[in-house]
Every structure is written in C-alpha cells, then in structure tokens.
Write a structure and sequence with these properties.
Blueprint: H1 4-20, H2 26-32, H3 38-50, E1 54-56, E2 64-66, H4 67-74, E3 76-79, E4 96-99, H5 100-104, E5 109-113, E6 129-134, E7 143-148, E8 152-160, E9 166-169, E10 178-180, E11 185-195
Antiparallel strand pairs: 1-2, 3-4, 5-6, 6-11, 7-8, 7-11, 8-9, 9-10
Length: 199
C-alpha cells in the first residue's frame, strides 16, 4: 500500500514522463509534490521502487522508469504496416505499435487449446489457442463454447431453431451439426481471438 504522498509522487513522475519523455530529477520531484527537501523526495522514490511501482536505473541522474510502462511494452509489437495476401501492394512502413493486451487480455477472457478439426473451414486448426470472452448468451451464428449436459464442452457455431432447440454447427463438411434441447446447452463464452505459433 502506498501512502498519499507516495501516490502523489508516482502521479507526478507518470505525468512528467508523459509530457517530457524523460524522468524528473529529485529536485523537480520535490518541487512538483510541494516539498522543499530533496532527501524526502529521495525517500519517496525509494519507497516506490521497493513497492515495485518504479525501477531505478543506476548511474543516471534521471534514472527512473515506470514498471507499468515496461510491462505494457512487453505486450506490444511494432505494427509496421500492411502486407498483401492477394495482389502485392506497396510496402509502407508504419510507426504504430500493436497492443496485444487490447486483442487478447481482459478480466472476462480465457484461453482454450483446440483439439480436433471441426472448425478447420474457418481456419481454426487442431492445436490452435482460442481466446474466449466469458458470457452466458450469444447471438445466432456466433462461434461459442457450448457446454452440453454440464459435461462436455465444444467450440461450434450457434444457431437457434424455430422449434426452440439449439443447433451447434461444425465448420467442417465432414462433421454433421449437433441438435439439442435448449435446456441441455449452456453457453460458456464467445470466440474473440485466435493464436497459432509457427516454428
């Protein structure tokens, strides 16, 4: 737990880094949080480092890095532009970063490893990882994790029939759809992403 002054110090450091692109000195921190003692500012900075909120870089006057930004950068990749999967296009370098956390992470998300080939026609292969957003309802035609009879879970496309029954549709013409009474099927989540590693 941080004290009120430590919170104030962290907020000042965060804002300073955002505005200037480099860390404040101890004198600037002291002035920024309304104290006169550089030694007191140093104690607050040390406490933030011990709490794991900042990292101190030895030998540098402005040697402070925010741990939260370092962690966030581990979850991003350079987004260098677009590439054609059809006709070639001009390669244009980009300057953005792709934040993987926006695509994959969330309090309500989880991952599952796919076993089998029932979804191959939409590019979900055996061994792929799928990212699921937890929910208990879904629109027709959504790809869902469906729990059948509270025992077996499957990844399929959802279709509600006029009869009130549920049709779970594979994306593989060799696998027939499965039809169940609605009370036998519970939606556990919807597909929001997919991962595959090539080595």
């Amino acid at each position: 737990m941080l004290t009120a002054t430590q919170h104030k110090t962290l907020t000042f450091i965060r804002r300073y880094l955002k505005r200037r692109g480099y860390a404040p000195s101890l004198d600037e921190i002291a002035e920024g949080i309304g104290i006169t003692s550089k030694g007191t500012a140093h104690r607050h900075v040390q406490a933030l480092a011990e709490a794991g909120r900042i990292r101190l870089i030895a030998g540098r006057k402005r040697g402070i890095a925010l741990v939260e930004e370092e962690e966030a950068s581990k979850l991003s990749l350079p987004l260098l532009g677009a590439i054609a999967a059809g006709s070639p296009i001009e390669a244009i370098a980009g300057q953005d970063r792709l934040d993987l956390a926006d695509y994959l992470l969330g309090d309500n998300r989880y991952a599952l490893q796919v076993k089998g080939d029932s979804m191959i026609d939409i590019g979900i292969l055996d061994g792929d990882l799928v990212i699921i957003e937890r929910c208990d309802t879904a629109d027709d035609h959504a790809i869902v994790v469906a729990l059948i009879d509270d025992e077996e879970a499957t990844l399929k496309r959802l279709k509600r029939l006029k009869s009130g029954r549920i049709k779970l549709i594979a994306e593989n013409p060799d696998i027939p759809p499965m039809i169940y009474a609605a009370k036998r099927v519970r939606i556990q989540g919807v597909l929001v992403g997919q991962l595959r590693r090539y080595e």
